[in-house]
Amino acid sequence: DWIMGSFAEESVQKIKEQVGKDEVILGLSGGVDSSVAAALIHKAIGDQLTCVFVDNGLLRLHERKQVEETFRKNMGMKLVVVDASERFMHELKGVTDPEAKRKIIGRLFVEVFQEEAAKLPNAKWLAQGTIYPDVIESAAANTKKAKTIKSHHNVGGLPETLHLKLLEPLRELFKDEVRELGCELGLPAEMVYRHPFPGPGLGVRILGEVKKEYANLLRQADAIFIEELRNADWYDKVSQAFVVFLPVKSVGVMGDGRTYDWVVSLRAVQTSDFMTAKWAHLPYELLGKVSNRIINEVKGINRVCYDVSGKPPATIEWE
Ligand code: XMP
């Protein structure tokens, strides 16, 4: 694309001038915005950029491996991967309130990131994948003292505590422009057009207390749902789709035995702004196939439901 091509070139020049010989750190989440920011900045300053990816134990199946593939192996970026999953699980122990879980996950991310930043004393800049709608949203929040129903924080709190200068090369772009730029920079289409994934990850898709056992089951079920959506060409027809883990056991039969296992719900929505959303009318055959596969392949789950609630009054996530 011609426009994004020249945007990339101009941006690269600007970043080079701005940063000079300084080092830059960036918190990579695997999401579109931070990925595109990383690719753009890497194009401009190469090894002066270090990306930090925090494995909080609440990622999707193979997500960490995919990030390592794409950024370290394919793009040759300096990437620090921190396995903090035990630490997150430990701090989440016994916590059931959704907002409390969000706060813990957000705080721990900042702590872990700061510890890594401290190991890079030459870093003068903090890069972020802030895009135009984020700029607008936080301006509105500052003036209106917005009453947020959920605290949607990913990396909030980082700039203040790190004493670094902010580098935000996507500040003027809308989401679809960020995606185009990502393609232009050679990121895989699968990554660039991926559904949004909340900062707290599976932490808000495991209802109530987060446990490693639940996260492992949820990860497998979710991967099956996404794989079947892609196979049926439904992935791009929905705005977001995922599985929710319900900490409830139900009775089932398997072979000639009785099972007493966990329940999950599938969620798939269509929306343009995520403020309101309709549940997706997925074909019954597809739902049936996903259900069969999850129950047969994920030992520990014996019942699959489909969420037919719109937003409002339900939210997209269950927490
Ligand atoms: P809800 O559940 O509020 O979700 O209808 C609307 C959109 O926001 C995402 N979401 C989050 N994103 N941190 C995030 O980064 C969060 O805590 C969070 N909670 C919800 C959700 O996935 C959906 O796209």
From TrEMBL:
Annotated GO MF terms: ATP binding; GMP synthase activity
Keyword Nucleotide-binding: yes
A single cellular component GO annotation: cytosol
EC category: ligase
All copies of domain GMPS ATP-PPase, residue ranges: 2-194
Pathway the protein contributes to: Purine metabolism; GMP biosynthesis; GMP from XMP (L-Gln route): step 1/1
KW Ligase (keyword) present: yes
Entry keyword set: ATP-binding, Glutamine amidotransferase, GMP biosynthesis, Ligase, Nucleotide-binding, Purine biosynthesis
E.C. designation(s): 6.3.5.2
Functional note: Catalyzes the synthesis of GMP from XMP.
UniProt subunit comment: Homodimer.
Name of this chain's protein: GMP synthase [glutamine-hydrolyzing]
The species this protein was found in: Turicimonas muris
High-level lineage: Bacteria, Pseudomonadati, Pseudomonadota, Betaproteobacteria, Burkholderiales
